[in-house]
Amino acid sequence: MERHEDGRLGGRRQFTVQMALALLGGAAVTIGCGGGGSPSGPAPVPTPSDPGLGTVSDNHGHLASITAAQLAAGGALRLDIMGGGPHPHTVDLSADEVARIRNRERVEKNSSETTDSVLGTHAHIVWFN
To answer: What is the count of structural domains for the chain?
Structure first.
């Protein structure tokens, strides 16, 4: 990965991968890097056609996605949101939260914390709908 002048990691390949995922998945993707779990402003709203796609704050390659089968089943889930990110995070959703996402209600969850050699200890906020 390239290091930007301001210290962020990224590059043309990461951008291309994120754009391809956005185009194929029909999702609004926030591209950016950062270490904290706080959003810099209001969260972008994923495309209404797919309630199972989440938006990740301070994203550096993570992908939060619930399959149609998982939404239909409606049980509790532990999502692996690593995606193309440099380290893992998980998001736990209760059965009630999965049902709310399926019904296109907004759900906001914190991810697990991870310690990364570049970004330090951090977590993300994930929004659905």
So the answer is: 1
